[in-house]
């Protein structure tokens, strides 16, 4: 059984998500210990629990330690099953983080999958659904990944209630070297159960910032009714993006400025991928046939933790060049 130290590097939930995904893919049983041991509330939170539960469902796995607060789990997968699944996180737990765990295994299932996932689409400490749809999936499509995503309803903290439909057609991923991708700047500013001017002010702040930098952007506005109340804005171009979320007492202008500052910091930095995408693409590069290579705006502890897990499962197939900020992956596909 492979043993993974959950406290390695940044010691967060990414280690767990990558370990469970690769356990499903390789069929190797894995023990993850010291789970989130350096966090204020160590062990499995409800978000991680749900991700493992879904991975257990799609792989008919045997699992030990599947309870809130557990700092150790053992995951023993069997066969990955494609099919139709309805996944209700039950809270505003992140839909995009659930997909980080189950999307790679379902890409090698024997049949296509259709997922209906209910939870949080725009929540803290996770990629927004718009980032996933317009940055992550854009890069994956260029590796021959056949995945479609539709956001039916948005879900914010704490009530959730967002609804996302995902269709996955198993496909042979192809490694590739990514080069700079000049695209127009786009975005979406949204609010739910709030006045329209909230989303408009978020957008206008971002547009004004970019114009001062000599840049134009096409940012659409969404005003919605739903189960949860909230707002946010995501901005992207090519392989880079930035986002921010509203919260009680936070002015819409602050939200717009936070998002555009985050985006522009990555957009103007040297590197083909923003540092979040550089992290997210590693597992898919590992699955692909041939070499995947890209530069990024910076090397992070989060990325190093991901490399540790992938190389523990598959040998030294991922190499980080910290001086050049380059990630190179020799895929096993």
List keywords for this structure.
333 residues, alpha+beta, Translation Initiation Factor IF3, UDP-n-acetylglucosamine1-carboxyvinyl-transferase, Chain, 4 domains, 4-stranded mixed beta sheet, 34% helix, globular
CATH C-level class of the largest domain is: Alpha Beta
Note the main sheet.
4 strands, mixed
Distance between the termini: 23 Å
* Overall number of structural domains: 4
Uncertain regions spanning at least 5 consecutive residues: none
Q: Can you tell me the CATH topology of the largest domain? A: UDP-n-acetylglucosamine1-carboxyvinyl-transferase, Chain
What's the count of strands? 15
Kindly report the name of the CATH homologous superfamily of the largest domain. RNA 3'-terminal phosphate cyclase domain
- How many helices in DSSP terms? 9
Dominant shape: globular
Mean pLDDT: 96
Report the β-strand fraction as a percent range.
25-35%
The run of helices and strands is EHEHEEEHEHEEEHEEEHHHEHEE
